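Write out the 3D structure for:
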Amino acid sequence: MPKRALVEHRPLLLAGVIAAFAHYFLSDNPIGGIWLILLKGAGVGSLAIYALRRAPGLDGFIVAAALAISALADMALELWFEVGGGLFALSHCVAIALYLRNRRENPSFSQNLLGLTLLIAVPALSYLLSNNPLIAVYSVTLGAMAAAAWTSRFPRYRVGIGAILFVISDWLIFSRMGPYDLGQLPDLAIWPLYFAGQLMIATGVVQTLRGEEPVP
């Protein structure tokens, strides 16, 4: 069967992409704070609903929960940074549980090495960028999430790379707090990198789980 258009096959993914684009281009537009907050949450929130509807079993519920908590964190960041950070740490813990339930059998030495590197380097570099011990504590969960994603059985060049894009977007946020001035780069790149990472994670996990469903 030929592939159908995205709007026909995956309307929730399309809705998420549209919401993400709209938030990116309207973030400085005075349409009203509450509407921008809701629009921001709608991006990853649509991915969460997509995962809940499309992915089977407990693993599908877990990835949907991780995405839903991230959507809440996106909105909370606009009101209270610490609450948003706490919700993101929770979403990382939920994602870690998913990836540990789905560890890759017999990973190669290079896969294990990169996983270990992410586990150690992510919090270390996060601290150097932010000069904030609380950011380093949060980034322990961020690094563990990326390491677990990379060493899971889900496709590395979708889920693994998606997790790394998530890390890079957070590093750009942290760079605003410390001694490093990256100019306009954080403003331009944080949201696209973050949403692209979440989109890759959602579709990679869902398509893997759906591919394992018995054919009726």
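The chain has one domain: 6-211.
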